[in-house]
Design a protein that fits this description.
Helices cover 10% and strands 40% of the residues. With 270 residues, the chain is mainly beta. The protein starts with 5 loop residues before the first helix and ends with a strand.
């Protein structure tokens, strides 16, 4: 079965009130049968954007989202509710919640604003230097099967080989660097960047973590709309202790310009 395109999956939304939406969580954008966390952020931002732009048409980009996952959501019907915290001239704040039955497994505080074409006054970031895509290695998650990791059917990931020698065990680096794009080569916009900021395998895989690494909290920033088909992604863990890991993700476009960044706290086991 062909995967649902990402933009098509985000359009499975029906506005049922001023602040409420019925959504259908698509099985194409799952990991082990559960909707991917970044996909959920993009879907919530898609709904919240409709509310914000009704009052501030120019504030059409979710530039920041701080999302808590109190439980795993399921594919299929869900309800999204938006609450306005503040509508401002330069930025607006909203709260978005996703409910299924009696559960509210996802809640996000979002900031909406405008991305312009101004030159950057300061930029301390630097993109990773990567081999060409055809010299890189496909996602190791594919070994679990396309059905188990649904996002692999729609997302092509190619990893720098020097980060893929996982035989080092705990002496290795908790870092993955590589390329990513949609398999159907559809454009990557500000909404889908929230997804790509959570699409890579856990950075703890190279140091021997096992099984699912569930995200507890994810903060995503969108700094620019990407140019080009491929993204360069660097994801690394900082501290692993007490059953938790904090990860950082940086995304650069084909100009080597930082377009998105994220931090997350996840549970991990070895």
């Amino acid at each position: 079965m062909s995967p649902t395109g990402f933009a098509e999956a985000l359009d499975k939304v029906q506005r049922t009130g001023t602040m409420t939406f019925e959504v259908d969580l698509d099985p194409s954008w799952t990991v082990l049968g559960k909707p991917n966390g970044g996909y959920l952020v993009a879907l919530l931002a898609r709904c919240a954007r409709d509310v914000v732009t009704g009052q501030r048409p120019n504030q059409d980009v979710c530039v920041a989202a701080s999302t808590n996952y109190s439980g795993a959501s399921d594919t299929g019907p869900a309800l999204v509710e938006i609450a306005i915290e503040r509508i401002g001239k330069g930025a607006s704040h909203v709260r978005a919640t996703l409910t299924q039955g009696e559960r509210t497994p996802v809640e996000s505080l979002m900031v909406f604003g405008t991305l312009g074409d101004e030159a950057r006054r300061y930029d301390s970031t630097s993109a990773p230097v990567l081999p060409p895509q055809d010299a890189c290695i496909g996602s190791p998650m594919a070994q679990e099967g396309q059905e188990a990791v649904g996002i692999l059917a729609g997302t092509e990931m190619r990893f720098d080989p020097k980060f893929m020698d996982w035989s080092q065990g705990t002496d290795g680096r908790a870092e993955l660097v590589g390329w990513a794009r949609f398999y159907d080569q559809s454009p990557i916009d500000a909404l889908s960047l929230h997804y790509f900021l959570d699409c890579f395998p856990p950075a703890t895989f190279p140091i021997g973590s096992s099984g699912w690494v569930p995200t507890l909290q994810l903060t995503t920033y969108v700094r620019d709309v990407p140019v080009g088909e491929w993204l360069k992604i660097r994801q690394y863990g900082q501290v692993v202790a007490d059953g938790f890991v904090d990860e950082v993700c940086e995304i650069y476009d084909e100009r080597d310009r930082l377009v998105g960044q994220a931090t997350q706290l996840a549970m991990v086991r070895f």
